[in-house]
Amino acid sequence: MQHAPPLTKLIEALRVLPGVGPKTAQRMAFHLLQGGRGGARTLADALTEGLASISRCKRCRMLTDADLCSICAAPSRDAALLCVVESPADVVAVEQSGSYRGRYFVLHGHLSPLDGIGPDQIGAREFEALLDAGEVREVILATNPTVEGEATAHFLGERAAERSIPASRIAHGVPIGGELEYVDGGTLAHAFAGRIRQG
Questions:
Q1: Which of 42, 43, 106, 197 has a Cα at 20 to 30 A from 181?
Q2: Beta-bridge partner residues of 111
Q3: Where are the beta strands (DSSP E) in 57-192?
Q4: Is 172 exposed, middle or buried (CB count within 10 Å of its CB: 0-12, 13-18, 19+)?
Q5: How many Å apart are CA 188 and CA 66, to the nearest integer?
Q6: pTM for the whole thing?
Q7: What is the tens place of the pLDDT at every residue in 116-168?
Q8: Are 90 and 150 contained in the same domain?
């Protein structure tokens, strides 16, 4: 069945969301147009306002509606510690753990030459400028444990080493409450490589 052009356009627009395929996009579009028109207007208004007012923090590249995000603007944060993450969602995850009190640098991706994502696209110049400013004393590389994430961590670690700033990689391994028999081989290899002494 062929949809009306505006409906087709809405369905295609919803497909830009992660994990949303054609059927899910169609279901969302039908829901918004059938009984959820008030919610659809609220969504449209929020998207319009967000696009107009939200940009990247001038220091860490987190999403914010001000020049500096709330973390960079907080005097209580340790400016000597810099945690590098791939996305704003990673900042939220680390913050929810409550175990980190430093600042962040958000890459908005990872190195992927095949996809045309190089150092400029992940903010390498801004990262180097932050290191050159002299406040950062340690870099914590918290990129994802993928091939691209590891390559990105290695690249950024080298930039830190050039400035004699120590860089560490977050540990990856067996989750708390996990059982070894259900953990994949790659995760176990990381866990053994990153083991720490007890006692």
A1: 197
A2: none
A3: 63-64, 78-85, 102-106, 138-141, 167-169
A4: middle
A5: 42
A6: 0.84
A7: 999 999 999 999 999 999 999 999 999 998 889 999 999 999 999 999 999 99
A8: yes
